[in-house]
Amino acid sequence: MTTKKHKSCLVVDDSRVVRKVARRIAEDMGFSCAEADSGLTATAACAETMPDVIILDWNMPAMSGLEFLERLRQMDNGDHARVVLCTTENDVEHISRALRAGADEYIMKPFDSAIIREKFEKIGLLSPGKQ
Amino acid sequence: MRLSDYELYHDMLKDTMGLSLAPERTFLVDSRLLPVARKWGYNNLQSLAIALRVMPPEDLLADVAEAMITTETSFFRDGTPFDDLVNIALPALLHTRARQKKLRIWSCGCGTGQEAWSIAIALKNTHPQLAGWKIEILATDLSHRSLAVAADATYTQAEIQRGLPVKDLLAWFEPAGKRWRVKDELRRMVTFESFNLTRDEMTPGRMFDLVFFRHVMEDFAPDTRAMVLEKVTSCVPDDGFLMLGPAENPAGLYEPLMHLPENPGLFVIGEIPAENGRDALAR
Fold first, then answer.
1. pLDDT on residue B232
2. pLDDT tens digits, residue range B127-137?
3. Taking the CA atoms of chain B, what radius of gyration do you get in angstroms?
4. B78 touches A: beta carbon within 8 Å
5. ipTM exceeding 0.95?
6. Hey, of B83, B155, B161, B183, which one would you mutate to test binding to chain A, going by the most A CBs within 10 A of its CB?
7. Which of A5, A13, A22, B279 is such that its CA lies 20 to 30 A from the CA of B135?
8. Among candidates B157, B166, B174 on the partner chain, residue whose Cβ is nearest the Cβ of A105
């Protein structure tokens, strides 16, 4: 008997509610999920086990999502994780900065499961149309 | 809803638009038609049904039909068809149309325009050798309301995020307040027109090298599907391509269509392209 290995997802957001919503969405898509409430916690989590994808909030106290992302890309195996940056900032400058820092995709809040699913498809984590 | 009212809506949609109101979709009637009823001053669907029985104005019929059309859409919907566009159809057409340097594409049932823009973006991103070619993308729909949105080419944050990679957002859209507007370079490639597949005829001789006809047949009554499929296919030359939705099968509807091996949504007319086209397909 073989066990199907789930892809892993780390949800990084200082809002417990947002973490819960994003986690539920990712779990419904078959991901095994962990949560981090800050960039520092997320750094420790990634050092222990690098996830396949990170849903990352931009605006967090102490360490912003962007700072965490730049740090992540310097870590061993830090290029493995696909990063979807989530924010309410939707201007060209913010989006460009996110891409330059190493984000694979960008979600403007509010988001829903359809948006996350399609972003995951675009970065090769899901097959199109897979439910 | 009374059975007789359901039958009225069923028959009206079929007679005027060739659209199918499957029994399992009757739940849509309440949610979609109540706003139409209120817009026209009726308190409920029974009153609307009565109005529809006695020489209803064309605008009311159009509102009812538009409300019942499936409008689900997103950029690069289903993914694979756009891979097939880029990797299969375009290389073949680049070869067979090399002399004319002209490409005509029809997005039939374009809704609010996302498919047409996705085609234009795919062409721009992947085939720089098309620079200098004349590219015409015709996008048609039955719904005037959808066409108005499509031609405005301005989308909300929620709409823009449905399927559009962020790099394409930056490359091909510009901010318009809290929304995003398609850049002029893409807008010049696409023309939007109203087209009712059951009533209108394409101008004789107006042909398309590639037609996207996806998620449209499912809206039509079974006995209308063959007619509309043949009408669309008649605008595709033998060395052109037809793209259907992933669950749409023309078997039994229009036999000359052949799907390409391993590309179940992509069809050609009659036979797999011979010689040059096949060589291009093999590359």
1. 92
2. 888 888 999 99
3. 20
4. yes
5. no
6. B161
7. B279
8. B166
pLDDT tens for each residue of B9-41: 777 777 766 777 766 667 777 788 888 999 999
d(CA B273, CA B256): 13
CB contact set of B153 (below 8 Å; sequence gap of 6+): B113, B117, B181, B182, B186, B187
What tokens appear for B183 in the block? 């850049």
Which residues contact residue B252 at a Cβ distance below 8 angstroms, ignoring those fewer than 6 apart? none
Task: Choose the closest CB to B163 out of A96, A106, A118.
Answer: A118
Where do we find the tokens 């009554």? Answer: B221
Q: Which residues of B touch A107 (CB under 8 A)?
A: 161
B162 touches chain A (CB under 8 A): yes
* Averaged pLDDT for residues B140-157: 92
pLDDT for the residue numbered B16:
67
Q: Distance between CA atoms of B256 and B251, rounded to whole angstroms? A: 9
Q: Which of A69, A87, A99, A118 to mutate to test the interface with B (most CBs of B within 10 A)?
A: A118
Three-state secondary-structure class, residue B29: helix
Evaluated on CA atoms B31, B35, B36, B38, the torsion sign reads: positive
Give dist(CA A23, CA A10) in Å, integer. 8
Q: Which of B80, B161, B174 sits opposite A108 (nearest CB)?
A: B161
Longest distance between any two alpha carbons in chain B, whole Å: 64
Mean pLDDT of B143-168: 92
CA A104 to chain B, closest CA, distance in angstroms equals 8
Determine the number of helices (DSSP H) and then strands (DSSP E) in chain B: 13, 10
* Dihedral pair phi/psi, residue B171, rounded to 5°: -75, -35
Contact (CB, 8 A) for B202 and B213 = no
- Backbone φ/ψ region at A28: left (φ over 0), alpha (ψ -120 to 50), beta: alpha
Which CA distances in Å does A11 have to A55, B252, B258? 5, 49, 46
Residue of chain A nearest B72, judged by CA positions: A114
Map tokens 């031609």 to a residue.
Answer: B151
pLDDT score for B48? 86
Q: Residue A76: pLDDT above 80?
A: yes
